[in-house]
Automatic annotation (TrEMBL):
Belongs to the zinc-containing alcohol dehydrogenase family. It comes from Nocardioides humi. PROSITE patterns: ADH_ZINC (PS00059). Residues 10-351 form the Enoyl reductase (ER) domain. This is Zn-dependent alcohol dehydrogenase.
């Protein structure tokens, strides 16, 4: 079958000699119908997201179950599923309300799920590998979607929606009327804006240097869209100089994390979602960490519950509360994936690209 393989850093592309392993008794085989393109996928190609190689890329995806293992009773052939990370349900974090951070999750792709025709083992990105025509996952990683949700929409719920919308409604939990500022207006930032609107935030401001994104961000619910040079004026004009109640960083750079913290009011909350690798450092003096009484929260995956949130986001889409059709700015093929990765840095219009599979 065909799959997008990162063979080594900087060398990647679509191959047609990839096979899945056999479907185990607790696993399902899914024929992928759609897969999103996320900046994390780009990070896997250049080492910013550390992972073992070779690797089948992709972590946003959806499709239809074509095989179930002998022990699987809660999934059946023909069901439309979104691919999530499996949660063991037994580790400390799973049993303490954080299954998205399961201690057994495969962030570094150490679980072999694929092989080349010559027998070479191939890892799967974050235990998924959705840039493939088929994949094998534990049955708990196949989240059944409500009827009527298109594959291209369910595919992006697995990262863009859960990470962006989840960081607001699950992680920060702003009060109705609170002010919110977002650094970064890409796919995750746009979903975060929709989360702020769902939460009833008052001022919803986005810092986005790419001007072509500004109108779309307003359509998602932003009350103000500004460039980085205008942050100081926004703090003065929109918050009487005190700073925003909640500030979200979706870029992953030391300077934007620092700017997000500085834009947060005393006793406010800063949420950091952007992935910046292991080399970046952010400096704080000791007094501001204590005397300013701010809360700094890291976010991965929007603190979502697999059995609750993906289906909830899908229902919100069907109700017209999440405008995910607008979020998909480009529909591409598997062969377009290398170009799609470059577009993340070169095309200012891109929010989410989705590859549609035959």
């Amino acid at each position: 079958m065909r799959a997008f393989v990162i063979e080594e850093l900087g060398r990647f592309g679509v191959r047609d000699d990839v096979e899945t392993l056999d479907c185990g008794p607790d696993e399902i085989r899914v024929a992928i119908k759609a897969a999103g393109v996320c900046r994390t996928d780009l990070s896997a190609t250049d080492g910013k997201w550390p992972t073992k190689l070779p690797l089948v890329a992709g972590h946003e995806g959806s499709g239809v179950i074509v095989e179930v293992g002998a022990n699987v009773t809660d999934r059946r052939v023909g069901q439309h599923v979104m691919i999530d990370s499996p949660a063991c349900g037994q580790c400390y974090l799973c049993t303490h309300g954080a299954p998205t951070l399961c201690e057994k999750r495969d962030l570094s792709g150490t679980g072999v799920r694929f092989r080349l025709a010559d027998g070479t083992p191939v890892q799967s990105m974050i235990g998924r590998g959705t840039w493939s025509q088929e994949l094998i996952v534990h049955w708990t990683a196949g989240i059944v979607m409500p009827e009527g949700v298109p594959y291209e929409i369910s595919s992006i719920i697995g990262c863009a929606v859960r990470t962006g919308t989840g960081q607001v409604i699950n992680v920060a939990r702003p009060e109705v009327g609170a002010s919110a500022l977002f650094f970064g207006g890409g796919g995750i930032g746009a979903c975060a804006v929709m989360g702020a609107r769902l939460s009833g935030c008052g001022v919803i401001a986005v810092v986005e240097p790419a001007l072509p994104k500004h109108d779309a961000l307003r359509a998602f619910g932003a009350t103000h869209v500004i460039t980085p040079e205008q942050v100081g004026d926004a703090i003065h004009d929109l918050t009487d100089g005190r700073g925003f109640d909640y500030v979200f960083e979706n870029v992953g750079r030391p300077e934007t994390i620092r700017a997000a913290w500085d834009a947060t009011r005393i006793h406010g909350t800063t949420v950091v979602t952007g992935l910046g690798g292991t080399e970046g450092r952010v400096e704080f003096d000791l007094n501001e960490l204590s005397v300013h009484a701010k809360t700094l929260i890291g976010n991965v995956g929007g603190d979502c519950l697999p059995q609750r949130d993906p289906a909830r986001f899908a229902e919100l889409y069907l109700l017209g509360k999440l405008d995910l059709d607008r979020l998909v700015t480009d529909r591409i093929t598997m062969d377009d994936l290398p170009t799609a990765l470059k577009a993340l840095d070169t095309d200012p219009h891109v929010l989410r690209q989705v590859a549609l599979f035959d």
